[in-house]
């Protein structure tokens, strides 16, 4: 067994972690779990009691939650250059965790058919959907050839790009010009293309 095992399903957020794994160039083993039995098995619940995907186990250590996996892999494979120097990580942490927190909360809450009232907005980290989307648009606007953290693509760009890919595909994030420009650059990266090909191939395999 590889010292890095990736638990996923191609119809899950595992696609984000797959992209990150391809970006860092790691050697890894893929374990595909189905939703009916795989996620509910005792073996997988010992890895992730939440019975959610994805998870990775690297050298005996488990990491769950997509943003954490991206940040972990960026640190574990520094030669890939997907994390800025320690003294230049303000934007990196800000936008990585903005996407993991306010953005995902705002998008999924609206998709579920519920949004907080004016008074309730103080209780939620995202406040309201419109403000969250506008904030993200301002972050990715006018970058030109730059990325959220500077000249180099980072795990934060990957994670934000993955949210834009899913959101604009399923209509939970509007296809604003700034979003589509940023997304187009992100998903044209060779690692993103490889990751999609791998997961698309799994989708075509018989159950």
Summarize the structure.
By secondary structure, the protein is an alpha+beta fold. The chain contains 8 helices and 4 strands.
How would you explain this protein's 3D organization?
Helix content is 50%, strand content 8%. The longest helix is centred in the middle third of the chain and has 22 residues. The mean pLDDT is 96. The two termini are 24 Å apart. With 207 residues, the chain is of the alpha+beta class. A four-stranded mixed β-sheet has the order 2-1-3-4, covered by helices on one side.
List its salient traits.
alpha+beta, four-stranded mixed sheet, single chain, 207 residues
Secondary structure layout plus pairing:
Layout lengths: L3 E5 L5 H11 L4 E4 L9 H6 L7 E4 L2 E4 L1 H11 L13 H22 L17 H12 L14 H16 L6 H11 L2 H15 L3
Parallel strand pairs: 1-2
Antiparallel strand pairs: 1-3, 3-4
Helix pairs in contact: 1-3, 1-6, 1-8, 3-6, 4-5, 4-6, 6-7
The biggest sheet amounts to: 4 strands, mixed
Tell me the total number of β-strands.
4
Gap from first CA to last CA: 24 Å
What is the alpha-carbon Rg in Å?
A: 17 Å
Note the beta-strand portion.
5-15%
**What number is the mean pLDDT?**
96
Low-confidence stretches: none
Shape assignment: globular
What is the number of helices? 8
Helical residue percent band: 40-55%
Oligomer state equals: single chain
Order of the strands making up the biggest sheet: 2-1-3-4
Order of helices and strands: EHEHEEHHHHHH
Structural class: alpha+beta
């Amino acid at each position: 067994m590889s010292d890095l095992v990736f638990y996923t399903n191609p119809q899950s957020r595992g696609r984000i972690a797959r992209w990150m794994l391809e970006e860092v160039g790691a050697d890894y083993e893929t374990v595909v779990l189905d939703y009916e039995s795989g996620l509910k098995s005792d073996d997988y619940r010992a890895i992730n009691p939440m019975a959610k995907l994805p998870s990775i186990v690297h050298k005996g250590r488990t990491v769950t939650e997509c943003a954490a996996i991206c940040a972990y892999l960026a640190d574990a494979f520094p030669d890939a250059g997907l994390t800025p120097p320690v003294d230049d990580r303000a934007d990196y942490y800000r936008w990585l965790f903005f996407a993991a927190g306010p953005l995902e909360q705002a998008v999924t809450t609206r998709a579920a058919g519920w949004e907080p009232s004016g008074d309730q907005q103080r209780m939620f980290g995202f406040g309201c959907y419109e403000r969250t989307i506008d904030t993200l648009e301002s972050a990715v606007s006018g970058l030109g050839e730059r990325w959220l953290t500077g000249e180099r693509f980072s795990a934060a760009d990957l994670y934000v790009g993955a949210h834009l890919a899913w959101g604009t595909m399923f209509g939970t994030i509007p296809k604003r010009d700034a979003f589509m420009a940023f997304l187009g650059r992100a998903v044209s990266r060779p690692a993103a293309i490889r990751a999609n090909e791998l997961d698309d191939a799994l989708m075509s395999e018989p159950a």
